[in-house]
Amino acid sequence: MFALDAKTMQRIAPVVRRVIIVDPNPAAARLLQDLVKGFGSREIVVEGDETRVLDLAREMEPALIFTERAGPRLDGEALVRRIRRSSLACRRAPIIMVTAEATASAIKGARDSGVHEFLRKPFTSGDLQRRIENLATKPRDWVEAVGYIGPDRRRFNSDDYAGPQKRKADKPRSSAEAALAVKDQAMRILLSALTQFDSDPMQAVRAIKQQAETLKALAIKTGDAPLAIAAAGLDTVLAAGAPTKATLTAPVEVVLKLASPESLARAG
What we know:
- The protein is α/β, with parallel strands linked by helices.
- The chain has helices at about 5-15, 25-40, 50-60, 75-85, 105-115, 125-135, 175-195, 200-220, 225-240, 245-255, 260-265; strands at about 20, 45, 65-70, 70, 75, 95-100, 115-120, 140-145, 150.
- The model is unreliable at about 165-170 (pLDDT under 50).
């Protein structure tokens, strides 16, 4: 059995404390279960049927979810989207997709569904350890939009990723550049959420609320008084309860007036 040192075990302990493995193949699920146990997990549940996973996740509140990409009663990408769009307490829990199908389109599909990591079968204990350590030591910003919910896709950590190299925007930036990137993304999501409000009101409200919190925190950090006032106004409307497109439009537009034209153009 692959043995980890005490430091590594301590580092990954919060990630593996409660684990759900979604895999219709009993042998593959058992192998993964044994490996995760070796990493210190003592609460692991295996399920092969997608329809039972959400109830299981609601009851267990896992800290980590593994899912196979496909099976007789499993669509891994659809399952990830359902978890991300749910009201589960664990909706932001790290998800690792495990599959023998590691084509560029499969990896992109996994990334776009909202997974944190992609693990190709067959894999070694070292491969699994690297994925779990990524989750423990390289946290990624959370994106709460309407079309996409999950970890920031620009920092997709899969060693199996075969797509284009990271964009220039993904390289290390100064604190000012990083703050501007956060502001631009939040503004784009706000505009998109308002535009798509009628198609998914619940997620649009959730997305707007997340951006209001992000922008308010950013304004305080950077000393941007106009942004702080605008974000606080939006937050007040959200806190009043039962927000609608009609009640949100004006305060969202006040915030959007502080966005750069370039960032809003990219939202389209």
